[in-house]
TrEMBL record:
Topological relation to the membrane, as annotated: Multi-pass membrane protein
Keyword Transmembrane helix attributed: yes
Keywords: Ion transport, Membrane, Transmembrane, Transmembrane helix, Transport
Record has Lipid metabolism as a keyword: no
Bilayer-spanning residue ranges: 12-37, 49-75
Domain named V-ATPase proteolipid subunit C-like: residues: 15-74
CDD domains reported in the protein's UniProt record: ATP-synt_Vo_c_ATP6C_rpt2
Protein known as: Putative vacuolar atp synthase 16 kDa proteolipid subunit 2
């Protein structure tokens, strides 16, 4: 692994990309769970609500896709000039 440097910027970029994707998926899951629960109960009373419920579920799933896209953009971002700190250097013996 000589010549490969994993910079501090790349580490924080990958951390934030993972957090962004995870939080987007969590928000989508919560949205789909709540809408699905109430939608099924409403569909049992009126069957014409199915299409509206399905559209709301699709828009809830879009939250996860937006989080994934933003995470990919963050993970592939190049560090700005002068940001090459890789951590403490080993002592010279």
């Amino acid at each position: 692994m000589i010549g490969l440097q994993y910079t501090l910027f790349q580490g924080f970029a990958h951390l934030s990309a993972g957090l962004t994707s995870g939080m987007g998926a969590l928000a989508a899951g919560i949205c789909i769970g709540i809408v699905g629960d109430h939608g099924v109960r409403a569909y049992a009373q009126q069957s014409r609500l199915f299409v509206g419920m399905l559209l709301i579920l699709i828009f809830g799933e879009a939250l996860a896709l937006y989080g994934l896209i933003v995470g990919l953009i963050i993970a592939t971002k190049n560090p700005p000039n002068g940001c090459t700190f890789t951590g403490p250097s080993p002592p010279n013996i």
